[in-house]
Design goal:
Blueprint: E1 5-7, E2 10-15, E3 19-24, H1 25-47, H2 55-62, H3 68-103, H4 115-129, H5 135-157, H6 164-187, H7 191-202, H8 210-238, H9 241-246, H10 251-273, H11 279-291, H12 298-318, H13 327-349
Antiparallel strand pairs: 1-2, 2-3
Length: 350
């Protein structure tokens, strides 16, 4: 790999095989700043709380030292939760960026168009009907539920393509029906199972440990790699299906592949922490405004989502301390305000 060259607002990196990678300078800078801010928030989340941990002691623990009690709080309690918040925020933001690009609509988010609800249905069926809360089983149920929901939306939307307002409207309708199914499943469960399922349905990282994080995050590796491979075609689709087809992009097949990848990312997040709302909706739009990009900014979106969910989880753990509230309630409260602002903005443009 040769030394990067700077051309106007872009960095060009030559790769082996006469290939090049083009990066926007501002996007790279903003992404790095968001990453640093996320690391600061994670450090605050790990070192503060009812049991204070000095930053110097944190460094000692991460390098293999530290006292037994402090190591327990850091490695077994706070670190997996903090990492889960950052990684799942990035995963949700990537899913939201994909669906917003496919629908060409800022409301095209998995929690708005029903895919998150469908993944939650699959997870609830495993928890309530199968009587299992094992991370692998819940992850499998969430993935199957999300893909099944996507298949229904795909069938109902395919006549006019997978883009535009139709995908959003069909997804909202399917999601509303599935929300009723989820409520019905909870009413048919015993009290203990219903309480556990309701807490999970709010979206919570309170009880997340390494066992809950490992399986879903391993499942997320393949979809994230596919996002990188499909990102050039995703940007081609943003200029219009006709122009993308003229450039040699198989439009229907590419849209279907991106749809499956986005659903898989959504299902991974739901399997790990339950349906956390509005991160996938807000992060891509905030990243686009920060970067000043006309199209989808995938890396900046992921970094924005990581920061948003990390801050939301920190607030969820500190607002009513020592009581812990589900992070989904925090993102829902903030996201509701954001959605209202977005609708007002779209109304003014219209």
């Amino acid at each position: 790999m040769t030394r990067p060259r700077v051309l106007a607002d872009f960095v060009v990196v030559a790769l082996p095989g006469e290939r090049t990678v083009l990066g926007h300078v501002r996007s790279i800078g903003i992404s790095l700043l968001l990453l640093i801010a996320t690391l600061v928030v994670l450090t605050i989340a790990i070192t503060t709380g009812t049991y204070e941990i000095p930053p110097r002691e944190l460094w000692a623990i991460l390098t293999g030292g530290g006292e037994t009690t402090t190591r327990f709080f850091v490695l077994d309690q706070r670190l997996p939760r903090a990492l889960a918040a950052a990684v799942l925020g990035a995963v949700l933001a990537l899913a939201g960026a994909i669906f917003q690009a496919l629908s060409n609509n800022p409301l095209g988010s998995p929690d708005i168009i029903g895919f998150t609800t469908g993944a939650a249905t699959g997870g609830l069926l495993i928890i309530l009907m199968a009587g299992s809360s094992a991370p692998g089983g819940v992850a499998a149920g969430a993935v199957i539920g999300g893909l099944a929901t996507a298949a229904v939306v795909w069938v109902l939307s395919i006549r006019r393509g997978l883009g535009g307002e139709r995908l959003v409207l069909v997804g909202i309708a399917v999601g509303a029906m599935l929300a009723s199914v989820n409520d019905y499943l909870i009413t048919r469960a015993d009290l203990e199972s219903a309480e556990a399922a309701r807490t999970w349905q709010f979206g919570s990282l309170n009880a997340v440990g390494w066992s809950h994080v490992t399986v879903p995050l391993v499942l997320a590796v393949v979809p994230i790699l596919l996002v990188g491979l499909l990102s050039p075609t995703l940007r081609a689709l943003e200029i219009g299906d006709d122009l993308a087809a003229a450039l040699g992009v198989p439009v229907t097949r590419t849209r279907t592949a991106l749809l499956v990848v986005g659903v898989a990312l959504t299902a991974v997040a739901v399997a790990c922490a339950g349906p956390i709302g509005f991160v996938a909706l807000a992060a891509p739009q905030m990243a686009r405004r920060l970067v000043g990009a006309q199209g989808t900014a995938l890396v900046a979106s992921a970094m924005t989502g990581a920061l948003l969910l990390s801050v939301a989880d920190l607030l969820a753990g500190r607002l009513l301390s020592p009581f812990q509230i589900p992070v989904g309630l925090v993102t829902g409260a903030v996201g509701g305000l954001y959605l209202a602002w977005l609708l007002v903005l779209r109304g003014k443009k219209s």
